[in-house]
Structure formats: C-alpha cells, structure tokens
Design brief:
This protein is mostly beta strands. Helix content is 4%, strand content 42%. It starts with a strand and ends in a 7-residue tail after the last strand.
Length: 276
C-alpha cells in the first residue's frame, strides 16, 4: 500500500508536471492477480484495484492501518468495471456484473474477490474511508441507482449520473460514491466546475479506448494545472481543488468522496469566467 501525503495549495503552485503526477495521479491500479492500494492523507481515503485471475484474492490488512483486519475501523465501496465476478464477505457471496456496486460496512472481517472467467477477469475498483458506525452490506445495480440525465450535446457534456453510496441510496458513515457515463460525442465532465471544502474526492477514469487521453484540470480556480490521464487511472483531488476534465473520446468515471459533509449536493460552484 503506497502512502501519499497532503499538499498545501501554496506549495502546489510551484509543482512541475512530474511532481503533480507523483502526488496526485494513481497509475497502474488494475494489476492482474493482485490488489493495489494508495492511502491518501486527505481524509485518510484509500483508493485501490483488485483483479483476480486464476485464483481468489483475499483482502488483508496493512501495517500502516494498525488494525486486526482491513475493515476494523473502515468501510468499503466496490464497483466492478470488468467482467462478472464475485465478492465474498464473511462467507456471504455477492455477484457483481459490469458497473454494479457493493458496499461493505465496518466490522466485516474476511473479504475475497473472484472472477468467473480467469481469461476475462472482473476488475474491482475499491474505495475506503474511516467509519464510526456499522452499516449493512448492500448491492446496487444501475437500475437501483436512479439514473440522472444531465448536460447537452451543445456543451459536449451529455451524460448519465448514477449515485450508489449517498444519503438517499446505500447508507454509509461518510463514503459517497457514484459513476458518470458520457454519451458518444460528449467529452467534458464537471464544467462549470466546483470545489467542496468539506470533503476530498477521487476520480477514476475508465472505458477510455486505447490511444485516447483525458486532460484533467485541478488546482485552485485561479491557479489551475492539468494532468494527462490514461484509461483506468485515478486522480486524487484535495478539497481546495477543482476537478474537471475533457477527453479525446467519450469515457466513464467513478467519483468517490469522504470528509465532513455527507450531502452529495454540497459543493461551491465556480464561475467559469474566473478560471485561470
């Protein structure tokens, strides 16, 4: 499990391309036969990927957590971006098709991941935040997530938003998680953009074809920087940073948040005219 420390926005202004990528871009999340995690000191958020192939992968604890098991003081959001797979939580099995979500609450001790076909593995995207209360395991399909149609072709951001873990969906201590699918011909996400001082956020980009890229914008509204992002890579977004992007092709992304406020709609809009 890789550890990432927090950065002050004044320091961020001095970062060059390599340092921005080192601190905020998560590459190579999906590795066949392994679990990879990145622990961020922004709200103690953990981002990860699990790709079981010929054998099951068990979710073990890590020494930096100082816990007997991974979810001793944490909760977990899982979204499958690959082929069909199964998550086993304390002996109970949950099948997840592509773009289906599973929440596992604090206190569950044994978790493992399995693919139905080793040649076409499941690709489990994982998010975890500290938890103060136990909530039950719950699965959501796309139909359960009450899809919301937003944007337009005129502004190149026609998209469908699915909210899985939030105050009116799957209940959690603080984790909020959902997914946005851009329609063909649309490339912009989260523009006009926003910040939210009460929580951090991580974007995980996927369904981006080979040899296509996304230009992700971050930083304070008047001090923006960009990162070039590839398929199945994630961006850590501090509470002081905008988080928007435009691709050379339409794509999908998973958004996940943790922090003080559990309200999905709590955000501070940024006037597009002040962006620099």
């Amino acid at each position: 499990m890789e550890i990432r420390f927090a950065s002050h926005p004044e320091d961020f202004k001095t970062y060059d391309t390599s340092r921005i990528r080192e601190h905020f871009l998560i590459e190579n999340l999906m590795i066949d036969g392994r679990i990879k995690f990145v622990y961020s000191h922004y709200d103690r958020f953990i981002t990860g990927g699990a790709v079981p192939t010929s054998h099951d992968i068990d979710l073990l604890t890590y020494d930096p957590l100082k816990s007997e098991f991974f979810l001793e003081r944490r909760e977990l959001g899982i979204l499958n971006v690959g082929s069909q797979g199964t998550v086993v939580a304390d002996g109970e099995s949950f099948e997840l098709d592509n773009k289906e979500c599973l929440y596992i609450g604090k206190g569950v001790k044994k978790i493992s991941f399995r693919s139905h076909k080793s040649t076409e593995p499941a690709r489990f995207y994982l998010t975890s935040a500290p938890a103060h209360k136990e909530y039950p395991i719950r699965k959501f399909t796309l139909a359960d997530a009450a899809p919301l149609e937003l944007g337009s072709m005129e502004t190149a951001n026609e998209r469908t938003v699915y909210k899985f873990i939030h105050e009116k969906g799957i209940q959690s201590s603080q984790l909020v998680m959902g997914m946005t699918l851009l329609k063909p011909g649309s490339v912009w996400n989260t523009m006009p953009t926003h910040v939210h001082d009460r929580r951090m956020e991580v974007y995980f980009y996927f369904d981006l074809p080979e040899n296509q890229k996304i230009i992700h914008l971050m930083g304070e509204p008047t001090e923006t920087r960009h990162i070039v992002v590839s398929n199945e890579q994630a961006i850590i977004s501090p509470s002081w940073s905008i988080h928007s992007g435009s691709g050379t092709h339409n794509y999908s992304f998973i958004w996940a948040m943790a922090g003080e406020n559990y309200n999905y709609a709590d955000m501070d809009a940024v006037d597009i005219n002040i962006l620099r």
